[in-house]
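Model: Ready when you are.
Researcher: Fold this.
Model:
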Amino acid sequence: TSLSGGSNPTTFNISAAYSAIQFVSALSDQNKNQTASVGLSLGHSSLNQKLTVSVNGRYTYTNTNEVSIGGTPNMAPNLPPIFDEKGNLNYGAFRYPGAQGSFPFAGLFQPGNANTYSLSGGMNIGYKPIKGLDIGLALGYSYLSAKSKYFFTIASYDPIDSPVGTAYFGNNGNISYNVNPMLSYSRYIGKGNLRISLAGTLN
């Protein structure tokens, strides 16, 4: 969804979006990906068109929940029930020599969650003090944060192995920026065109 408006010398645009992906499976309510974002942009120019300024920004949030159903496509269709009468994972029916620690449906009790947050923005400034001379400055900023957590619960392991539950947490962030000045001059000399350009980048 977006909304645009304004008129010379100022215009604007506001946008928002949301999406949800739900995986088609027996655990579709626990496996989903949701993303929401909002953006804003503004543009302005002086009445004599010598100065132009534009600003933009966007914020995005993503949330992902995941649980593994487990199993493999080549498993027999007449497997024992995954859960016992008490609602616990039916480890006893899957115990056989060499199967220690390899219960195929342990992922049902090993949930994971990940969140990402991103913020980006920029500004562009242009100025034409005299004919043929262009002065510009572009500024950019970006922030990204990612947080995750995964749980390997005791209930997801066969109790005969005296299991211990574990949890993993992750937290990462990154900030970047850039500054790009620009200067150019052009004019006709006789039948030729002289053009000089200078540009720089700072990150």
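Researcher: Now this one.
Model:
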Amino acid sequence: DGGASGLIIIEDDDADELIKATIWNDIPRMAKCVDYDQESDEGLEICDIDGRASETGKTALMIATELGKMEAAKWLLDNGADVALYENEGWNTAVHYAVVNNRTDILKWIVEAVTAARVDGDWYCPLSTHNRAGDTPLHLAVTSSRKGLKLAKILVDGGARVDAMNREGKKPVHLAEAVTRQRTRLAGTATVQSLQPARPLLK
């Protein structure tokens, strides 16, 4: 479950202990960081599971997703990390990071967490939030050069809205059609892709 991402450098003096433990995939230390009932070890800061890196405003879940820290991401999701938060600049959520970094396994876990927390009749779906550029994760998935169709299917099966429009008034299917036409011209072969949800979409 690969994907390229930028290196995140955090100064030790400023870094949240949970963020550092996440980068090292250190699950026992992550657990201690958010355990408010235990006596803090010397030098170990007790912190919120959705605490943010001081420079970027990214949560531990965003960083685990971006860097492909599988065990850390799974632990964070299992322990209630919020998938809908944005970093400081409001560009992306953990869902966006999963898509742009081709983290199919982490995206599946995110969908499972969203599904488990969903309340009947709730119109809000974290899988369909817009980033600062105006794109939902599904918009990004259908234009991805790697694993795009697989990522899109995970999102749609999880209830992501296929009718969500970006800032240019385009739905994901419009972008998918444009990408297919472009790839067809480049490859000289016709490819037809469709997004069919495995279960009813959120209204």
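Researcher: Key takeaway?
Model: Confidence is low (pLDDT under 50) at residues 1-14, 189-193.
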